[in-house]
Design brief:
Length: about 120
């Protein structure tokens, strides 16, 4: 049996046939995969890199990137999320006491001002 493509475990079982190829299921992590899956090639890797780059530059949304590259927007989301989760946690030096984020806002559900709709 082939090793799992997600966790590398050797504990896999046959799990049907998809598009004429044998599908396997990893007993350790539950990931389904096909042996000889050619979906990850240089063309797909280039699309993935371009999606991450354009999204990081704040130049595109998931749907827009999906339309441009003719791929599903959910796949774009998964690629960008996986890349973000693979990055190390940012370190903030101890001498920094205050940070400012431009173009950010927050609404906590409390109104600062009430409107009086009663007639006087």
């Amino acid at each position: 049996m082939p090793a799992c493509k997600k966790c590398g475990s050797e504990i896999t079982v046959k799990n049907g046939i998809v598009a004429g190829k044998q599908r396997y299921c990893c007993k350790k992590c539950g990931h389904n995969f096909r042996e000889g899956d050619e979906r990850t090639n240089s063309k797909v890797m280039a699309k993935k890199a371009l999606c991450i780059l354009l999204y990081a530059m704040a130049k595109g949304s998931y749907r827009m990137l999906g339309r441009i590259l003719n791929i599903d927007h959910a796949l774009v989301y998964r690629w960008i999320r996986a890349f973000g989760e693979s990055l190390p946690e940012p370190e903030v030096p101890g001498e920094i006491k205050e940070m400012e984020f431009d173009e950010m806002w927050h609404f906590d559900g409390q109104k600062k001002q009430t409107l009086d709709h009663q007639s006087h």
